From TrEMBL:
PANTHER family: PHAGE INTEGRASE-RELATED, PROPHAGE INTEGRASE INTD-RELATED. InterPro entries: DNA_brk_join_enz, Integrase-like_cat_sf, Integrase_recombinase_N, Integrase_SAM-like_N, Tyrosine_recombinase_XerCD. Residues 27-109 form the Integrase SAM-like N-terminal domain. It comes from Micromonospora cremea. Keywords: DNA recombination, DNA-binding. This is Site-specific recombinase XerD.
Length: 459
């Protein structure tokens, strides 16, 4: 009976000093979990709620008795007075959590209205209201190859083998990098892929693959992702050389923990469903509906041992977590920085690359290609204006929006300003200006400084 009331994995639980659940926060967390909010989102909401609760308790207040002035004071404290202040963007995330919390309190009858007024018809939250530009950082080809092969793959800058490389699983890391770039998937999407989704079970190696994303997509928005041949080909060395070794070393750990695993005995519906034992019960699950937690513990009974169903695995045979991939990324970054000393290698950004930069690179390159393709088709047809049907079906922005899984075309539209960065043309644009008139101010200054004499000194 207790299992029915157990909180979902990742659900925050806030306890008082006497170890009793703190209400109504624990009920709110439970509702968030039932609504399939991600553990990362719930963790952020929990930190915000805990800070707010402590702030109000220091004033002798609680969530029900807080006024608009109290919440504005909390905002001011977070921005300017806390031990670790935050910016407007971080406060907006806090404001979203507080708004969600008071919506819950309103539904439960704890409060009869939100304790703040809407300043406009559209502004009904505590957020700053400042619209921020989407940060788009992408890679040029030379930068990407250097990142993939030198940083993640452990090669030397000239492309040869680096005998001093002491990294771990370079084939896996290069394959993950290539997959992220050529599909545009987010890290939670590509890092949680399962072998059946790519058709890689039983030594099968399809040339391309189509993946139907579901529970692991952002906000659970389903979409189809095409995995091209180059990404599938780069998976080959990892699947042939590294993955079997990881699985073999992990057998002891997997067998010891098998009661906590989802042990799959067979695949159904052409690999779209799996059937196995989970928590002592035989169940059937749709692969597309499996969340990251379930995917992480999914293993297949092969007769020769337990084989994790995840494509990318680490020590112990478990799917790498986000923090695990972060360690891989930082190690690659340190390697790239060390290898670029002395002017070797491409120019690197000031801050470390993140996996989402590969998604931005995918979006921009695809948008540029589809735009040129659409312009070429228009010229070939020699039409002054395409028909409405041609425009709708061939619109590059709509195609990229569909591939990225953006809920709104406005998000994809922001990529337009990055198609050609005018800052790259600054030197060329002002070359004739700086060259005009012969000597530059720097030349004049050097000449003046070398004159010497009293007149020059008095100048």
């Amino acid at each position: 009976m207790l299992a029915r009331f157990a909180p979902a994995p990742g659900t925050p639980v806030l306890l008082s000093e006497s170890m009793w659940p703190v209400e109504p926060l624990c009920s709110w967390f439970r509702e968030l979990a039932l609504n399939r909010r991600s553990p990362k989102t719930m963790r952020g909401y929990a930190y915000t709620a805990l800070m707010l609760l402590r702030f109000l308790q220091a004033r002798g207040l609680d969530l029900a008795s807080a006024s608009e002035a109290d919440l504005q004071d909390f905002r001011q404290w977070r921005l300017d007075e806390a031990g670790q202040t935050v910016g407007e963007a971080a406060w907006d995330r806090d404001a979203a959590a507080i708004g969600c919390l008071y919506d819950f309190l309103l539904r439960q009858g704890v409060v009869d209205r939100r304790p703040w007024r809407a300043t406009t018809r559209r502004q009904r939250t505590l957020a700053s209201g400042t619209r921020r530009d989407m940060r788009v950082r992408h890679m040029e080809l030379e930068q990407y190859l250097y990142c993939r092969d030198v940083g993640f793959g452990g090669l030397a800058p000239d492309g040869g083998l680096d005998q001093g490389f002491r990294g771990w699983r370079p084939h896996r890391n290069r394959a993950a990098c290539e997959l992220a770039l050529l599909t545009g998937m987010r890290i939670q999407e590509w890092s949680t892929l399962l072998l059946p989704e790519l058709g890689l079970l039983d030594a099968r190696r399809p040339r391309t693959a189509d993946v139907e994303l579901g529970a692991c997509a952002k906000a659970g928005h389903h979409r189809s992702v095409y995995v091209p041949g180059d990404a599938m080909e780069l998976l080959g060395p990892y699947l042939l050389l590294e993955r079997p070794e990881i699985v073999a070393k992990a057998q002891g750990t997997l067998r010891r923990d098998h009661r906590d695993l989802f042990v799959i005995s067979r695949l159904e519906a052409d690999g779209a469903k799996v059937c196995g034992v989970l928590e002592g019960r035989t169940v059937t699950r749709s692969i597309r509906g499996m969340d990251p937690r379930l995917r992480r513990i999914a293993v297949r009974e092969t007769g020769d041992g337990l084989d994790p169903l995840a494509v990318f695995i680490g020590a112990g045979g478990r799917m790498l977590t986000a923090s695990g991939w972060d360690r891989v990324r930082w190690a690659a970054w340190e390697r790239m920085k060390a290898a670029t000393t002395g002017g070797v290698g491409p120019e690197l950004p000031r801050r470390c690359w993140v996996y989402h930069d590969l998604r931005h690179t995918f979006a921009l390159r695809l948008l540029i290609y589809l735009t040129r393709l659409a312009l070429g088709d228009g010229r070939a047809q020699q039409l002054p204006m395409s028909t409405l049907l041609d425009h709708m079906s061939g619109n590059p922005l709509l195609q990229v929006q569909r591939r990225l899984g953006h809920a709104s075309p406005a998000t994809t539209y922001r990529y337009l300003r990055y198609l050609k960065d005018p800052m790259r043309d600054v030197d060329e644009a002002f070359r004739t200006w700086t060259a005009a008139g012969g000597a530059s101010y720097a030349d004049i200054a050097r000449t003046t400084m070398s004159l010497g004499g009293g007149d020059a000194a008095q100048g």
